[in-house]
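Support reply, case 0932

Customer input (verbatim):
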Amino acid sequence: MPPAETPPAPKPAARRENRLRALDGLRLVAALMVAGYHYGGRDGEVVQAWGSSPKHQFPTLHELFAYGCLGVQVFFVISGFVICMSGWGRPLRSFFASRASRLLPAYWAAIIIVTAVFALPAVAYKAVSPSDALVNLTMLQQPLGVDRVLGVCWTLWAEIRFYALFALCIVLPGANRQRVILFSAGWTLAAAIAQGVNEPLLNMVLMPEYAPYFIGGVGLYLVHRDRRDAYAWGIVGVSWLIGQHYAVQRLWHAPNPEFFSNRSAIGIMLVVTFGYVAVAAIALGWLNWANWRWLTVAGALTYPFYLVHEHLGWVAIKAYHQSLHLPSYGTFLATVATMLLLAWLLNKYVESWLTPKLRTALSKPRS
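Our regenerated output:
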């Protein structure tokens, strides 16, 4: 009798492809929007880098670049989606370790690099004091009233407050649909009350101006889980209505030739709507075809690029435009490319090395 054939070994399960790579691409789009605003959509310190107002450097595009500041609102919608997704079914220790290890390594490196560059005699931009630079390492410089090393770090302070609210209300008790809906509705109502009474403590905790974007992203994650969820769509709709209101209220004012003012109310509403619609398209799976691996790389570069692009961009613009005499558009592209290269170096030599070590250290249970 011939020996029985050995059954073939089961094939290893195929690794599930990331179906949300489009989200990484959207992150990069939002970061480039903000870079366009900082380089060509406003006056301020960048005038010193260019040698004149960006209005003169980009006679046509400066009006479009001015809308780039709304990339922050797009970031916040993405953040609401991602934090709800990453916090679902995860214990508090793991959630904290994931967020801290994601934010801190590149942030610490950016603080050190910008502080060192601004301390060089050849760089004319004002550096913060050594004491203030050290406080910046905590990410708490905003509430402590300390000078910021990175101009963009105010958005991280908003992100930290969102993480804290979400961790306490959702991650700690355990995420489920009902709890997330109650959290979103309760935060929306509490933020509206805080705005109405204008109480500083409530405003700091509840962030009425930014809450709609985070809440909208959370609602879109519920849509991702169940596209027929009427409550989720209601959260998204109310958040969009309130979010566009705050964006128009804060970013529009009557045209004045003495100011760098080019944003119309309709334009602001359209950009905010773009953020919600783009994340909704990803949540519904309409962009699953955008599954290219390079989008993951783009997503990995977005955060370090966002951190360094503004202040170090001034230095690069001055070098390319005033020293090397590159034309305005060439300088813009060269500066973006330089900041992306620096972001790649930070991701490869700082984040790839320190992030897993920090996550392991923070995740390890202690007796």
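We compared this against your earlier run and they match. Two observations from our side: The mean pLDDT is 92. The longest helix spans residues 328-363. Please reopen the case if you see a mismatch on your end.
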